[in-house]
């Protein structure tokens, strides 16, 4: 007797407007399921070269050591930390959300002497605060989050990077949510180690972590006295496979790399500036509509991420119930708050393919109707009208 | 001006008969490109449950902690090692190929006091040799490779596992190449930590590492005094996401998990015993045909892996040239030797979907023709005839 089989994969239709994954282009799905070839096949090596070339364009860098780590975004965080940090090294981590906390944890496990500076969730760091902390602890590496996925706050980097380098330190940056949605200018801002994920504004399924390292960061890695604690993430070996010698490291996730390759083609086909403008425009339309629904952003104006709209849940509204209703009745996924803001905020993503005017309208409609069912009295028509108006005037 | 775009993904047609990846079923490709949903979507949580259930069947275990690590097979190795080992713990690693060497490296990086016992590439360990080594170094963990992908040698485990447990140690086993192609009886053999890959006999694209941990292994993890060095691979957190609380860890590779789910359905639909027999039958047909071509196995009879046929390259034949010819003229990928047997052996995979009689015949035909072009005088027709005969008589 054969064992009774589980049902085949048949996912429900969703509109992905949470903190990632975002919706995926049919072209990316097609690439994902293109025939697998070997990880040393001449064709695949060309795909890797092309991916590196395109990742450099998206990261706005000439860094040679630019590739996709074979794991999700958090493996990119770990790869950046463990390759730069040796046991006993000092690292300053700026914590204003869950991903800053995570970075401090990763660095501690890597044996760093970690100093954290902390801000309330949703706030950002001023250059002065960074300068003071860097002066106090004289770190080898300063870790900071560009776009805090847990709070929706945007951390400007340019001035901070200058401060960090003037102190002789390296800057390590989390661009998981920002890459492909707002400018990430690795060379112009002089960032040393940057990681991202595929499932946010690049609109590729989760599973790879684009990373890039400056020549200074590579030099620090080359001068290590100890082996990197993680064999899997050791860039001294991984880069041999991506770079000249093609020495086998592990069997790369071929099909995921096909998908990212195609996702990057889509980004460059649209053009970075056009893509950033699209993200901003849909953010502004959503914001106008949400305001009409009586919903306020949890991050101050000017520090809001266009691709991740973190808003306060209105008084008397049950977080889980509304999100369940959006999912079950409208097929729309939005995210809840993480950490201390759990149950207090929603996170509405407009990332990559999901950043579409029609999604803005559908979300406003659905959320407005859910709020009215829950006893609020909001004007859904008005919300839609202002969102349309922002699009027309934008 | 838009940057000029690179060409779209369009892989050449290959028959994957190397050491993995293997060929993929259209059903797995379809699952791979099914619509992405969120990593906390109720639908996806059901997929995870189903996958755990099926992985347990394939691993032949009741182990609760059975899941797919979000990385390639080597990340599974690292996950097993870093979760069981704390700095200063003694680990015995049995090295008779590249993957034993790798395990020793991973364990050293994890802070283990590593003792290795070594055999020539292609040889296996006797229970007596393990008993002696375990008695000498009294390790917390013994690491060993079930199916050495670099050499094609099969290491019996049952007796060794008993010896290891009698000494109060845990056994950690690499089943990357064996799982789904020959029996891996985790419970019956009492294995404590086992990892595999998806791209071998499971015939799913590379990118995930199935792992399973015995209750004893889980207890050791629960009693750790230090945090696991890798945040990304820390099972104390990963299992919360796969298990009861569903606490967010990182954004899972949704689509890769869809693909593995479908690949596991295919394994169970065929039935484990049928699948093992298929692998054995095609191995025997290939072996008979290769013998007719004058090609000898590099591993003694009785210790050969059916899914990975490691053979000596005939005298006077150029490794790279023949493999290039097979790939370019016949679309067939086979593997070269790794480590000390580089240039001396070929590795011919008959894994999962690739384990087909038609592939055996195509490979014999292609290889025979290449050898004749290179000046040998082999009888291709005879090789095909004996392969057919083995199938008919099997």
Report on this structure.
2 copies of one chain form a homodimer. Chain A has 394 residues and is α/β, with parallel strands linked by helices. Chain A folds into 2 domains: 26-269, Type I PLP-dependent aspartate aminotransferase-like (Major domain) (Aspartate Aminotransferase, domain 2), CATH 3.40.640.10; 272-393, Aspartate Aminotransferase, domain 1, CATH 3.90.1150. Helix content of chain A is 42%, strand content 14%. Chain A has 13 helices and 14 strands. Chain A has helices spanning 26-32, 42-59, 73-84, 98-109, 127-137, 158-166, 215-222, 235-242, 254-270, 272-292, 319-330, 357-373, 380-393, and strands spanning 15-16, 65-69, 90-95, 113-118, 141-145, 147-148, 153-154, 170-174, 193-195, 209-213, 308-312, 332-333, 335-336, 345-349. In chain A, strands 2-10-9-8-5-3-4 form a 7-stranded mixed sheet, sandwiched between helices. In chain A, strand 13 (335-336) and strand 14 form a beta hairpin. The longest helix of chain A has 21 residues, at 272-292. The radius of gyration of chain A is 21 Å and the shape is globular. Chain A starts with 14 loop residues before the first strand and ends with a helix. The mean pLDDT of chain A is 97. The interface between A and B is large, with 84 and 83 residues.
């Amino acid at each position: 007797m054969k064992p009774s089989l589980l049902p085949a994969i048949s996912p429900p239709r969703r509109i992905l407007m949470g903190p990632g994954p975002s919706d995926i282009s049919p072209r990316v799905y097609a690439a994902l399921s293109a025939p697998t070839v070997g990880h040393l096949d001449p064709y695949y090596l060309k795909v890797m070269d092309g991916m590196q070339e395109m990742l450099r364009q998206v990261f706005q860098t000439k860094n040679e050591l630019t590739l996709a780590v074979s794991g999700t975004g958090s493996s990119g965080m770990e790869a950046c930390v463990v390759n730069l940090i040796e046991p006993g090294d000092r690292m300053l981590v700026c914590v204003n959300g869950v991903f800053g906390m995570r970075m401090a944890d990763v660095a501690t496990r890597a044996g760093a002497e970690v100093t954290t500076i902390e801000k309330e969730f949703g706030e950002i760091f001023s250059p002065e605060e960074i300068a003071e902390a860097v002066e106090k602890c004289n770190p080898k590496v300063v870790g900071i989050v560009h776009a805090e996925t847990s709070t929706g706050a945007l951390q400007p980097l340019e001035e901070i990077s200058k401060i960090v380098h003037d102190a002789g330190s390296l800057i390590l940056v989390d661009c998981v949510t920002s890459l492909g949605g707002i400018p990430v200018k690795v060379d112009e801002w002089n960032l040393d180690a940057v990681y991202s994920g595929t499932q946010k504004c690049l609109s590729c399924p989760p599973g790879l972590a684009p990373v890039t390292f400056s020549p200074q960061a590579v030099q620090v890695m080359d001068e290590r006295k100890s082996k990197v604690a993680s064999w899997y993430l050791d860039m001294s070996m991984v880069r041999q496979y991506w770079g000249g010698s093609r020495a086998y490291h592990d069997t790369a996730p071929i099909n995921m790399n096909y998908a990212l390759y195609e996702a990057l083609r889509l980004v460059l086909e649209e053009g970075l500036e056009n893509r950033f403008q699209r993200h901003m425009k849909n953010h502004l339309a959503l914001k106008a509509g949400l305001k009409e629904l009586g919903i306020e952003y949890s991050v101050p104006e000017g520090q809001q991420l266009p691709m991740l709209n973190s808003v306060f849940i209105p008084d008397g509204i049950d977080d889980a119930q509304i999100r369940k209703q959006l999912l079950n009745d409208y097929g729309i996924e939005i995210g809840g708050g993480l950490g201390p803001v759990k149950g207090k905020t929603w996170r509405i993503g407009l990332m990559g393919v999901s950043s579409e005017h029609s999604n803005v309208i559908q979300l406003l409609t659905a959320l407005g109707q859910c709020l009215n069912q829950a006893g609020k009295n909001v004007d859904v028509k008005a919300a839609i009208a202002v969102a349309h108006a922002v699009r027309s005037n934008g």
